């Protein structure tokens, strides 16, 4: 049974939090508003639905995703956990056997000892907000699926690079470490199977996201805002084939397009 949520004011969108979560809610809402402001400067008029920052007792009554603490969006809400989520420990556990001593040192340097991915996870509200750039276009087409995720990751990368560059290490360190730990045997690994991974192993799906984040870092560096508009146009037009989508990206960055074609055989960067 959930609690009566508290409503907070002071942002350009409603904010609702679990009892005792006002301080955490304000931190997440402040970041969300910075993201919205930046995307408005990039794309013009832009807004988001209400933001929910909720505890475990309220998660099931608010969230559309069953795993506690996994940020996500729906047409009528953005949902974030109030407390740290164990999910990210599961992700690290899945690649632990393949980490080198240098990998472990890098994770501790950025996320503390013991490693806590909270600083990384808190940035993902910006990824979820990036999904509103494609107008909530959904469907199971495999190419459109990874394009939507690539657009959200590109928005996140652009925001961090341009607005909060001090957060690049928390964003990208775990991405690099997990992506280059290729010894894991994932159920799904082809880019066209990313949409299947949503209902499979959580870490398998995160591995896909980290591969796309690796490429969107480079795409932002080479093409910036033009890349955002290109992906928006792809998702708002006729459903592209895989080759058509990669060809469009290739006009921006031929090397990123080449790595999409050879997925997942490209290095972390």
Tell me briefly what this model is.
By secondary structure, the protein is of the alpha/beta class. Helices cover about 55% and strands about 5% of the residues.
Tell me what you see in this structure.
The protein is an alpha/beta fold and 269 residues long. The protein folds into two domains: 1-83, Zincin-like, CATH 3.30.2010; 87-269, no CATH class. It contains twelve helices and five strands. The protein has helices at residues 22-43, 56-62, 87-95, 101-111, 118-130, 142-163, 168-180, 194-197, 202-223, 225-236, 242-250, 254-261; strands at residues 6-8, 15-17, 51-54, 72-74, 77-81. The chain has a five-stranded mixed beta sheet with strand order 1-2-3-5-4. A hairpin with a 2-residue loop joins β4 and β5. α5 crosses α7 (168-180). It is globular.
Spatial order of strands in the largest sheet:
1-2-3-5-4
* Tally of discrete structural domains: 2
Strand content: 5-15%
Using the CA coordinates, give the radius of gyration.
18 Å
What structural class do helix, strand and pairing data support? alpha/beta
Layout of secondary structure:
Blueprint: E1 6-8, E2 15-17, H1 22-43, E3 51-54, H2 56-62, E4 72-74, E5 77-81, H3 87-95, H4 101-111, H5 118-130, H6 142-163, H7 168-180, H8 194-197, H9 202-223, H10 225-236, H11 242-250, H12 254-261
